[in-house]
Amino acid sequence: MYKKINDIDTGNFCGVLKDNKFHIPLDEANTDYQAYLEWVADGNTPEEAE
Amino acid sequence: MAITFNADTTNGAVITSDTSGEIELQANGVTKAKVTANGLQDANGNSLRGGMYRNLIINGDMKIAQRGTSSTGQGVSEGFKTVDRWNYTVGSDATAGRFTLTQDTANAPKDKGFGYCTKFDCTTADTTIATSEGLVWRTKLEGQTLQAIKKGTASAEQITLSFWAKGTAATYAVELHDEDSNRHNTQKFTITSSWQKFTLTFAADTTGAFNNDTGASLAINFWLHAGSKYTSGTFTSNTWASRTLANIAPGISSFYSSTANEFFLTGVQLEVGEGASDFEFLPYDVQLARCYRYYEETLNNLCKSFINGYGTHNGQKVLNAEFKATKRTNPTVVIYDASGTPASNKLSTYDAAGTRTDGQTVALVQADLQQIKVFPNNGTYSGIGFYYTADSEL
Fold this sequence. Notes:
The complex is a heterodimer.
Chain A: E1 2-6, E2 13-18, E3 22-25, H1 31-41
Antiparallel strand pairs in A: 1-2, 2-3
Chain B: E1 23-27, E2 30-36, E3 39-42, E4 70-74, E5 87-90, E6 98-104, E7 117-124, E8 134-142, E9 159-167, E10 170-178, E11 183-191, E12 196-202, E13 216-226, H1 228-231, E14 241-242, E15 262-272, H2 284-292, E16 295-297, E17 307-309, E18 311-313, E19 316-322, E20 332-336, E21 346-350, E22 356-367, E23 371-376, E24 383-391
């Protein structure tokens, strides 16, 4: 459902891809990122970046 | 013969009303304006309080619909469908009820100046209502836009919600939900098959300030259907209190009670103070620009444009696109290629002769408040292109 995305330059974790469609930024004011954080808090784990 | 009022030395010029409580200003025997207990009003009782952008709600006249004008089979899960800045939510229990949501022109109250309304048309009834079912038509407002209400201070203001509604006869509820302090205030309204303007003034709340930021502070929730989780308590109209779910909607009708049910809404306005002024009509371009802060796209017909070209960043091909407006927050982005049925998370590439290849892989998307950067997988092509949606909704 969720997959981590790493920055091309730095290789650092920079975002989340949901359903291989929605590029979600690491921004706590973004409601999709809020939903992701709740999903993680519920004990779920995203797929690691390639 | 003109009548001149001269001020005395202590009170200025004072005109007092009779026991009706009103002072009318007439011309040729016709009332043009009046002073009432609720302030200065026009002959129809609308507040004459003015000022640009006094309506705190964006797209209250349902004019802008970037995502499309009609969506069928709704009721399964929440989402922004059709008009901008408005979405519907459902409860945690699934309902069998379904509806078609439309940005409607045929039924809009054009004689009141409105070219659009939203139309809810029940297509599947649900008369067995589970505990946590719900259907709420909602818009949310940023805290920074609400500071004039002075909520949570000793100087807190009343606020007035006005709207036009009609439909199959029913009683629904509208809830103001302070999401910062989890407080709410609810009032009911009863619709008929004719358009009515509803004016609901909500008491000032000296408890719980709105955050002065870009987050969601106030939700305006129109409750159209609710299970016992939301109806089993006690309804107290126009009273701010800590939010108790059971007290939100006791006694409301169910929109899903029959496939004959319809609900129409437009002209939603929220303003500081007691009494509603006339709806504040904004030019289309101004309204659209305000909506862009929360959502924009290049995919649908409203603003269809294909972004193409590319530059390089550390040897990696990249294409930037500037947003039409500064976003509320860094947006969630979806990229589409240029095919007849655009594929999501894909883009198009071009060779040196300009021949397009769709379905190419997106390596990375980065977006901030002002722009989007799209990185494709590197390859031997001369250009890239894509459509996008950028969502910063509340």
